[in-house]
Design goal:
Elements: H1 4-9, E1 17-18, E2 25-27, E3 30-32, E4 35-36, H2 40-52, H3 60-72, H4 76-80, H5 91-108
Parallel strand pairs: 1-4
Antiparallel strand pairs: 2-3
Helix pairs in contact: 2-3, 2-5, 3-5
Keywords: Membrane, Transmembrane, Transmembrane helix
Organism: Saponaria officinalis (Common soapwort)
GO cellular component, one term: chloroplast
């Protein structure tokens, strides 16, 4: 699938994300990088917290904390480049940030149970 026609047909006003990576697209002198939208962005941090806090079930607010955390890591520079997610090359930092936010939310909701190993 080629995404260059999308950019041309919308005069560069396309928001696009896919489960697989695509090459950057240039339109009218501006380069946009298509977002790779897959579960890898959230599963590492979210899964880590669920294991750490011994949660059998998660609360909707914990999932909202994941979304908020991921969205908060997108900068104005990312938006200017056409990114709707932070660069995947920063996945370790992204996951740690998500884990922190979800752990705080789990604790706030009384869902954090300390595990004795």
């Amino acid at each position: 699938m080629a995404i260059a026609p999308l950019s041309a047909n919308t005069k560069g006003c396309t928001i696009f994300a896919s489960g697989i990576p695509f090459d950057p697209v240039e339109y009218d002198g501006t380069t946009s990088v298509p977002a790779q939208a897959n579960n890898a962005y959230i599963f590492l941090g979210f899964g880590l917290v669920l294991i750490m806090c011994g949660a059998v079930r998660f609360h909707d607010d914990m999932l909202l904390a994941v979304s908020d955390s991921l969205a908060s890591q997108v900068t104005e520079e990312h938006f200017r480049k056409g990114l709707i997610y932070p660069p995947f090359t920063n996945i370790t930092k992204i996951s740690a940030h998500i884990a922190n936010k979800v752990a705080l939310k789990a604790y706030e909701l009384g869902k954090f149970h300390f595990i004795h190993l």
